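Here is one chain, start to finish.
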Amino acid sequence: MSYEAALKEYSRFEFDDGRYTRTVYRRGQGPGVIVMHEIPGLHPLVIRFADRVAAAGMTVFLPHLFGEAGRRVSIPYVAKEMFKNVCIRREFRAWATDQSSPIVDWLRALSRKVHAECGGRGVGAVGMCFTGNFALAMMTEPAVVAPVLSQPSLPLGIGAARKAALGVSAEEIACAKRRFVDEDLSMIGLRFYGDPFVSDERFANYKKTFGDRFEAIEIDAKDGLSVQGTPPHSVLTVSLRDDDPEGPTKRAERRVIEFFKQRVGAV
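Its structure:
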């Protein structure tokens, strides 16, 4: 069955970088922001966040990376997509401590297209959970000027090395650090305290590696929504408290959207 009713306000196109082809959904006007969805896929609450980016005066692009576009989140759906993308699909490296995923090359190429078409100072990019660290790896593309890492969960697995790892290469880290200084840029990272997929060690490593160029937004788990008995995880989507407009998750959402506006040059 089709779940695409949630995307009825979006146009769509196929983007091919010569290696991968993916569907991309587009909405809005102004400088571009790429929103990379989380596991299990491009679900309605990711689309809700993208709608708000578009309403703030930007053109939002939603690459469809896995799952079924528009399908709602459920535990069985999450489990199925987690297995497929962690264990089967080669464009993602879920376990690597010092490499980014091959799909990041496609995302960099998409960023170039977005900037060429939408103008502005550059492109914003937010990754969520499984795609969280993609926004950092994309900084090797000069068009990307506003990276946001929402609950960055890769690499998966146990052990001290994986808990602290950033899941990108040394070259990508060096490039980001250089650009942050040379171009006066920065990035935002978001998570809930106690999230087993985003450890204290990982956020400490971001802070150590990038210093005051890394803006950490860390939220008490009691201030996020718990869904079907699972701890809060997805800061900008599933666990966002839309019923508490002055609460921590809504303030985090506003901060991210304002960050994009400032960096990409939205009016």
